[in-house]
Amino acid sequence: MSLGTDLAAALPELRAQAESMMLDTCTITRSVRTWDEGTASWVDAPTTVYTGACEVKAENVQAAEADAQGQLLIVQSLILKLPVAASVDVAPGDVATLTVCRFDPQLVGKRLRVGASHHQSFATARRLPVKEES
User: Fold this and answer.
1) Assuming Cys at both sites, which of 59, 102, 106, 117 could form a disulfide with 77, CB separation 3.0 to 4.6 Å?
2) d(CA 55, CA 57)
3) In sequence order, what DSSP letters do the residues of the chain get, joined into one string?
4) What pTM was estimated for this model as a whole?
5) Mind listing the pLDDT tens digit for each residue in 44-83?
6) Is residue 47 a contact partner of residue 93, using CB atoms and an 8 Å limit?
7) Residue 64 sits in a domain of what CATH number?
8) How far apart are CA 115 and CA 80, in angstroms?
9) What is the reported pLDDT for 77?
10) 112 forms bridges with which residues in the sheet?
11) Residue 25 sits in which domain range?
12) How far is Cα 98 from Cα 111, in angstroms, rounded to an integer?
């Protein structure tokens, strides 16, 4: 046996364990631009690319002095975790709206814009860097 073979054999169980932590739900949409003959203009219409389990995680929180005026800037990186197999169509620019957040109801309704995709051979979850939209 090799480490690669062992990881490949364990990966389905590891992914199932990661998904068991995804107790929240989100809907991810992508804006698709189409031509509207009636108004003779371009219209942005949201198209759903994913609905299902998710988890929001604060990757790091740092407080730092931002400028010479002594203002405090809080920098927080958010990660949206999705099941690997179910989220292949999610792309940068898509918007996730949190619809169920079992342990933090203040997250319901939050909109998170996907900043980048995440691909990894032995990933247990798709970890997407996101930024909260106001």
Assistant:
1) 59
2) 6
3) --HHHHHHHHHHHHHHHHHHT--EEEEEEEEEEEEETTTTEEEEEEEEEEEEEEEEEEEEEEEEE-STT--EEEEEEEEEEE-TGGGTT--TT-EEEEEE-TT-GGGTT-EEEE------TT-SSEEEEEEEE-
4) 0.82
5) 889 999 999 999 998 876 655 556 566 666 667 899 999 9
6) no
7) 2.40.10.270
8) 10
9) 85
10) 96, 132
11) 3-133
12) 7
Across 2-6, 19-23, 64-68, the highest mean pLDDT is recorded for: 19-23
| Residues 105, 55: Cα–Cα separation, whole Å | 13
In angstroms, the CA 23 to CA 9 distance is 25
pLDDT at 59: 81
Question: What count of residues does the chain have?
Answer: 134
Higher per-residue pLDDT: 25 or 4 = 25
Which residues on neighbouring strands pair with residue 36, listed in sequence order?
A: 41
Q: Is the pLDDT of residue 126 over 60?
A: yes
Q: Roughly how many angstroms between the first and final C-alpha of the chain, as a whole number?
A: 51
Count of the separate structural domains present in the chain? 1
Place of tokens 């590891």: 14
